[in-house]
Design brief:
Elements: H1 8-18, H2 23-31, H3 65-72, H4 80-88, H5 90-99, H6 121-132, H7 137-147, H8 157-163, H9 170-196, H10 204-218
Helix pairs in contact: 1-9, 2-9, 2-10, 3-7, 4-5, 5-6, 6-7, 8-10, 9-10
Length: 225
């Protein structure tokens, strides 16, 4: 998808959350930065960091029990039979093969769109979980985002409610939006992360996700996390 094919309403809606005057405070609240006594961070603040992260080299190409717990911090749980198959069965082996060819340690803005296009290994992993094993699309997306937090965004019902259903896919639409105008949107996310005092170990995509979710919540949409 080229910048010429960008959905302007999608980009404008996304920018409205990122550039909101409340965005930095929302990020601090979510990640527990400078909270008053008695206040606690959102459980999702541990999504990327739990047990050192899902993309650290020694576990980057396999899904661990810690990854399954990390996904629970975003208020979803993999069905027990699926979780066991991931940890001990054929599904885990299939996902490991696909993860081994999905780039790790790179930002979405830095890869070719083909990396997240239909038929890519990332798309195959998502389809394997959803189509062959009946995993809910939200759970599948969050599990893959845990394994590749800089490359694959969290896209759940809250994000879909806030941003819509861009075509041909959210991954491609976000890739195009981040790449357009000399990566202006990506640079805005990095600036927002710095302004909020969020650690650099939190990906630009996660900053985007949290800004959208917190902003959408503030608009009065009581969507579950």
């Amino acid at each position: 998808m080229s910048s010429a094919e960008l959905s302007q309403p999608f980009v404008e809606r996304l920018q409205s959350f990122i550039t909101s005057p409340q965005a930095a405070a929302d990020l601090r609240r979510y990640f527990g930065i400078g909270l008053p006594p008695g206040a606690v961070a959102f459980t999702g603040s541990r999504f990327e960091h739990l047990d050192g992260g899902g993309d650290r080299p020694e576990v980057a190409d396999r899904i661990t029990a810690e990854d399954l717990v990390a996904v629970q911090t975003l208020s979803v749980t993999a069905p027990a039979p699926v979780a066991l198959d991931i940890l001990e069965g054929r599904l885990g082996a299939q996902l490991s093969v696909l993860l081994s060819v999905i780039p790790a340690g790179v930002d979405l803005v830095d890869v070719d769109a083909a990396v997240v296009a239909d038929g890519s290994p990332a798309d195959q992993a998502w389809s394997l979980l959803c189509d062959q094993y009946g995993v809910d699309w939200v759970i599948a997306g969050k599990l893959l985002a845990r394994k590749r937090p800089r490359l694959l965004p969290v896209y759940d019902k809250v994000a879909r409610c806030a941003l819509g259903r861009p075509r041909p896919s959210f991954w491609l639409a976000l890739h195009a939006a981040l790449s357009a105008d000399d990566r202006a949107l990506h640079r805005q996310l990095l600036a927002l992360r710095q302004a909020a005092g969020v650690p650099e170990t939190v990906s630009a995509l996660r900053v985007c996700d949290v800004a959208v979710w917190m902003g959408h919540r503030a608009e009065g949409h009581a969507c579950p996390r």
